Amino acid sequence: MASIGEVAEPKPRIHPFRLLCAASSYTSVQIAYGFAFALFSPMMTRLGVKSWLTPIMWLVGPICGLLQPFIGVFSDKATFRFGRRRPFIFVGLAFVLLSYGFFIAIEQGAFKNNTVAIVIGLIAFIIINVAINILMLPARAIVFDVCGEGQETMGNNFIALLVGVGNIISYIFSAYVKNPYPYGLAFMVLLSVPTFLAVRERRYVRAEGEKIENPFKITFRALFKVVKGGPVLRAGFVYLMSWSAYFAFNTNGTLFVAKAVYHGTPLQNSGSSLMSDENAFNNGFRTALNQLTVPMMAMAMGGSASGAIPGAVCLIARQLIQQHTGMDNERYVAMMKNGVKNTICSIAQKVASTSLFSNTSFGAFLSSSFVSSSASVFAAAGTPENDAYIEGVKIGSLAMMAMSLLTSVFSAISELVQKFFGLRATYFLTQLLATFSLFSMWIPRNIDKSYLWAVFVSYCGMAFNFSMFNSVPFAIVNMSVPQEESGVYTGVMNIFCLLGQTISQGMCAAINAALPDDRAVNGRWFLQWDFFATGVVSAVATVCSLILRVGQRNSAYDSNSGMKSGSVEEESRLLLEHKDDGQGVGSVQL
Question: By CB atoms within 10 Å of each CB, which of 362, 498, 535, 570 scores lowest?
Fold first, then answer.
């Protein structure tokens, strides 16, 4: 480690593939985030949580994010045998496994009481946010531990690329797999393996008498240095504004399609609900079908197995099933559309030639032939509004997946784009496009499925800025602070992220509390007004992006340092082809 004023040897550059492997574990962070973004809000809505309360629940993320600076402090000085960063990544994955277990239990209907399911869901959400914050900083810091001189931007671009990959995995499984959590966990483990294998972390050896300082003291000391001014503060402020504009979109992307576009309403998982109480449903069916024994026997013994027999049985079945399950006509019709009618009639035809004429044995026959094969069909059917809601969440996940795919593509070429247009111009244009995208979801009234093409276009418009604000601010920071302190300063940067997320969810909670969540007002749903508010914030972020400056490692906190109005070529050279300034990694001017 170089002391103040001492010249440090430039770090040797490594092969880009090895750098990509080092960044691979960051995909796990985004898979965990992606499942939360895609499924948590729809899950809470299905459990009956009011629309104004869901954004408040999302504040769990920023609160848990306060862990990051302290994770940074401990990981910078950790003396684990397997390195400073990898043990934290392993622990984070273990916490994800625990949280996914709770989410799977909720999806399987293990908790019949809504209040219990909501509390368990919130506990699981807290655990997964703790896991994400244990994972995130070490997974990012390990990239800068191994990257060579001038490879900071490449490392950040790889991270942005893998953010898109993680989102694609999470959204596609959310759309097409009924229980996506085991698949998500499998991909998280699989994509963390390259990091464990490709990175050879040296065990940190503390100097004699060296101790880890109070993490609160280190974090706030670093924060105090940052707020004095300079390129890092500017990057942090722009990062805050970008997250304020983006976070509500990310948490409501799937819900917007389900509610505002498909006009879906989920069936709530109530303990008294016919659709969610599987035992009561099965018992009701068995009672009804057992009572069909007499008319079926009479018709079967009449010697005819023609179409009249199944038809008559179906009429009687409808009356008995509705009587014993409390099913209304609309739900019965929905059940019929899902193939249960054919099952009933098929059973009736079998009965015409069966010798199972005792009430008990016939009930067992019906239970094995009908309830086991058809109860799940009925339980998945629900009302047309519920079916629309489920389809909307699926299509919303696909729209978010399309955005993520475009994020990955742009991340792969963003270095060239920034080099051509310049850092500030590229950030400005992508943030401006995000602003137009958010407003485009607010402008139309009475939207429906014919608007889907515009939803996909608007969502894709968010992809470019998402890539930029996941890479550029951190590239500026990592070029401006001592390498051995990258963990704590990356954690400090995330404080700006947490403030942005808090602002975003606070705005949405206030809007949602003032508007109904079950109908549109003057042709616009409450989520459209959320996007209007965040669109205004995005417009402010667009203007703020013009203050970005690229600092140098020896002047990171000097408010008079950094690029003031340099040319595109000079700005790009500093960001994309950064070289050691000759004063060393440790020579920070405070």
Answer: 570
